[in-house]
Hints:
By secondary structure, the protein is mainly alpha-helical. 62% of the residues lie in helices and 3% in strands. The protein is built from four helices and three strands. It has a three-stranded antiparallel sheet with strand order 2-1-3. The radius of gyration is 16 Å and the shape is globular. Residues 148-180 form the Rubredoxin-like domain.
Amino acid sequence: xxxxxxxxLRSAFGGESQARTRYNIWGDxxxxxxxxxxKRLFDATSDAEKIHATLHFKALKDVSGDFAVxxxxxxxxxSTSDNLEAAxxxxxxxxxxxxPSFIAVAEMQGEKEAVRAMKFASAAEKVHAERYQxxxxxxxAGKDLDVEKIYVCPTCGYITFEEEDKCPICGCPGNKFMEY
Length: 180
């Protein structure tokens, strides 16, 4: 594997792994604040980030060495609203800046598996940002997120609040989605 793509995959793996843990912690804060559905959203997104990290890890041909930290943005424990804002901004950064540049490098270097993994993650991150914005609007209005169920695609990490026939990102059958 080309070094630059390998480095980018390692960086993306680290970022997704950190986001997963951060979302677990922030979910606990949301639950303590009385927002049980926001906690479920954080938990679902945490599992989606694990899917992204796993895709990146599998795309690496050489998994030795240290993983780089992509960003320190969004660290710390704040109010549920502030945590949702930081989570949304992290997802926007990944989908609009980090992944597009990583994908361009991987495409230039002919790393098809890396391109696939990062395209899935980038598309799912855009949706994660939208879900966090919905949750933030509810919390800022003093309400919990108004959802019955949260579904996560096990292939790409796409998140939806409604049953779907198939994932709009990767085509995975909707009956394989994880329910929260």
